[in-house]
Amino acid sequence: MRNEVTDILVVDDNPLLVTVISEIFKECGCIVRTASDGFAALATIRDRVPDILISDLNMPRMSGFELLSIVRRRFPAIAVIAMSGAYSGAAVPQGVAADAFYAKGSSSVAQLFEILCAIKDEATRYSVRVAAPIWIPGVPIDRGCLATIAVACPECFRTFPHRLHDAKLLRTECCCPHCHHMMQLAMVTPTADMNQTGFGIPARTVRITVPAYIR
Question: Helix-strand-coil percent breakdown of the chain, rounded to 5?
Fold first, then answer.
């Protein structure tokens, strides 16, 4: 992170929360930009790469899960803080590509400042980062039915179709038909059905993760 004015991007579909966080950081002399979902955030990052990204996990169009996975791969120098009201504690939820976690509703804004201070050193962030999967939006499927999803290979970046049989199958493997890279697919339930680890009981609507591990 630069020693100059800190550039922060806050991403959340709750306009009130975005306004509150933005005004607090602006009072501290930071440059603050905002976005309402992952697609808007990526457009903002293309305009100028921020020092810090603070993102909600559950948003329309593109969730924070997907956004942070993309940011980790494309912009690894950005310090990332995930936030959500669906998880408690200070630990980053499993599978989330973030350097720290802020529990909305149960943590004070003062704690958010402490988190920023703790992750400001780039070398420290890189040393403690753990492998995180690439998140892909899921599709609703019923037991006994087939559904086809598009999977982007993390090795050759080409997309190919992959068939899912039912939501009862939690893990499976597939091979990229282009470069023959093997990938493990894991189905994850929506937030409402998740436990604190982020992996819950199978539901009709699922998320597919490709654990192509990234740093």
Answer: 25, 30, 45
Please list the residues that pair with 9 across neighbouring strands.
Answer: 33, 53
Backbone φ and ψ for 102, nearest 5 degrees, come out as -120, 120
Q: Which of 90-104, 143-157, 173-187, 194-208 is predicted with the least confidence, judged by mean pLDDT?
A: 194-208
Q: What are phi and psi of 94, to 5 degrees?
A: -55, 135
| Sequence-separated (6 or more) residues with CB below 8 Å from residue 204 | 140, 141, 142, 167
* SS3 assignment, position 213: strand
Q: Check whether 202 has a pLDDT greater than 50.
A: no
Q: pTM score, two decimals?
A: 0.68
Radius of gyration of the chain measured on its C-alpha atoms: 18
Q: Do residues 136 and 151 make contact, with C-beta atoms less than 8 angstroms apart?
A: yes
Q: In this structure, are strands 52-56 and 7-11 parallel, antiparallel, or unpaired? A: parallel
Cβ neighbours around 52 below 10 Å, total: 23
For residues 174 and 191, give the distance between their C-alpha atoms in angstroms, rounded to a whole number: 25
**Tens digit of each residue's pLDDT (9 = 90 or more) over 104-134:** 877 677 788 888 888 877 766 766 676 666 6
Instruction: Report how far residue 178's alpha carbon sits from residue 160's, in angstroms, rounded to the nearest whole number.
Output: 8
Q: How far is CA 202 from the centre of its chain?
A: 20
Q: Residue 54's pLDDT is what?
A: 95
Cβ neighbours around 7 below 10 Å, total: 18
- Calculate mean pLDDT across residues 132-160: 65
Q: The tokens 């602006």 sit on which residue?
A: 26
